[in-house]
């Protein structure tokens, strides 16, 4: 099959979150399974400045703002995979990829229309067009109005339902749509235009990034106002857990960690812990564990519970290192913890790729007390590095982490269910017990062998492509 993926960010060219990781890995895995893959993303300023790309072509595109020139550059990934970049200087040559721009609706509707125009112009004739998140959600709507795409199957992946692309009604003309699309059964959403609704309504199948999150999005608590619409599409709505790129995340071959190791050489993992604690000016205490968290400092990530947990960890003589940035109120809370527990807590208020690798390798336990989590990659990475995850039972965390049994003979993490301090206290206390137990190394070896490879995930997507292409 020829399969097209359309997304606003693709790793390593542009990344603000997990979307880029998924679209950077999934198409490559699909290609390795014998399919032709074409990808599209915007040509951002940052991409133009950092990467040398081949000029392909340019062509005019009529918009409500007049005729604009679509610039096409490309990167051949391998013999079966090509990535095309959609450029337009006034829309994408900006310092920030997204930002709170007043013309975000125009920017990404232009992107969607330009992709379809290029596909038709080059006669790519894809069997499947797979769109990701709100930025590409108008693609299936626009395509349904063109007979060229009448035999094309459209798939749509929701990576995080909280971000839907909602804009004022006045944008309807700027995004080249007739006002007849502004009805409750189409794009209207509480008096505004909702891009994500287009992806849900006009695609053949929809999925999100874990089975549990799929079910959660059908409830008022996690549906963000779209639970009713998603329920009407429930027979075509799936949950598929993301995979992990084991070529990037492999402690046996990781150039960013202090000492390489595998499941048979866990003593070398201890060297990583000692070195990162020394670098962080933390005191190494015999019999005490290192807890780590790598996270965006946002309410979704359970920051209030994490702050509470760090108090308990440090007061018990254990250590904690945070890597992340976000809301200032949370940054202030963690900096206060750092001052309170000077030789036990260190907070790096940034995201540093190499430091993240070092912390995965150094940590004994990895904290993810999320309020909701569509899939999560951090727990999968922590498995690979023998860093036992402590997670709340929600979304993809519920689908990927099995609670360690009372006798410690099964399970691969510590799971708590209720979002309150009592529950996370019990989880931390269990971690203390696991750390002191004779089974600690056996658990770490066990979790390092977990398989969440992208090939397994890719096969599930290919199954959907085949099912709906032949429907």
TrEMBL record:
Domain Glycosyl transferase family: 282-433
Keyword entries, A-Z: Glycogen biosynthesis, Glycosyltransferase, Transferase
Classification via SUPFAM superfamilies: UDP-Glycosyltransferase/glycogen phosphorylase
Enzyme class (EC, first level): transferase
Any single biological process term in GO: glycogen biosynthetic process
Domain of life: Bacteria
Pathway: Glycan biosynthesis; glycogen biosynthesis
Binding locations of ADP-alpha-D-glucose: 15
Record function comment: Synthesizes alpha-1,4-glucan chains using ADP-glucose.
UniProt similarity note: Belongs to the glycosyltransferase 1 family. Bacterial/plant glycogen synthase subfamily.
Name of the protein: Glycogen synthase
Organism of origin: Muiribacterium halophilum
């Amino acid at each position: 099959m020829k399969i097209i993926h359309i997304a606003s960010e693709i790793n390593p060219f542009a990344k603000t979150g997990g979307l880029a990781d998924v679209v950077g890995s999934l198409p490559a895995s699909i290609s390795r399974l014998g399919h032709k893959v074409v990808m599209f993303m915007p040509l951002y300023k940052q991409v133009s400045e950092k990467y040398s790309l081949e000029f392909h072509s340019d062509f005019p595109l009529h918009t409500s703002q007049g005729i604009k020139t679509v610039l096409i550059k490309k990167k051949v990934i391998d013999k079966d995979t090509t990535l095309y970049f959609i450029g337009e200087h006034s829309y994408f040559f900006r310092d920030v990829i997204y930002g709170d721009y007043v013309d975000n609706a125009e920017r990404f509707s232009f992107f969607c229309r330009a992709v379809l125009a290029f596909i038709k112009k080059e006669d790519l004739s894809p069997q499947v067009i797979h769109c990701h998140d709100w930025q590409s959600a108008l693609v299936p709507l626009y395509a349904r109005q063109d007979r060229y795409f009448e035999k094309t199957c459209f798939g749509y992946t929701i990576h995080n339902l909280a971000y839907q692309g909602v804009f004022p009604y006045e944008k309807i003309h700027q995004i080249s749509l007739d006002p007849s699309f502004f009805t409750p059964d189409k794009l209207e959403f509480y008096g505004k235009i909702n891009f994500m609704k287009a992806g849900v309504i006009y695609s053949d199948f929809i999925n999100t990034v874990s089975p549990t999150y799929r079910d959660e999005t059908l409830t008022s608590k996690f549906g963000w106002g779209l639970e009713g619409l998603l329920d009407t599409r429930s027979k075509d709505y799936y949950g598929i857990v993301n995979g992990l790129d084991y070529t990037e995340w492999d402690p046996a071959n990781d150039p960013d960690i202090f000492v390489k190791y595998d499941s048979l050489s866990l003593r070398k993992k201890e060297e990583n812990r000692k070195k990162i604690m020394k670098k962080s000016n933390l005191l190494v205490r015999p019999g005490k564990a290192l807890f780590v968290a790598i996270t965006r400092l946002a309410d979704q990530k359970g920051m209030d519970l994490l702050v509470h947990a760090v108090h308990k960890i440090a007061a018990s003589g254990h250590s904690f290192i945070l890597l992340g940035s976000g809301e200032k109120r949370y940054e202030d809370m963690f900096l206060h913890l750092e001052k309170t527990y000077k030789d036990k807590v260190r907070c790096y208020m940034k995201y540093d790729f190499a430091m993240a690798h070092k912390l995965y390798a150094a940590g004994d336990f990895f904290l993810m007390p999320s309020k909701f989590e569509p899939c999560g990659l951090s727990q999968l990475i922590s498995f690979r590095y023998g860093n036992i995850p402590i997670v709340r039972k929600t979304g993809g965390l519920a689908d990927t982490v099995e609670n360690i049994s009372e006798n410690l003979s099964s399970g691969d993490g510590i799971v708590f269910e209720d979002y309150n301090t009592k529950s996370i206290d019990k989880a931390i206390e269990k971690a203390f017990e696991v750390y002191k137990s004779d089974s600690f190394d056996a658990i770490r070896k066990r979790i390092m062998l977990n398989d969440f490879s992208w090939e397994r995930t890719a096969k599930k997507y290919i199954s959907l492509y085949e099912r709906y292409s032949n429907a």
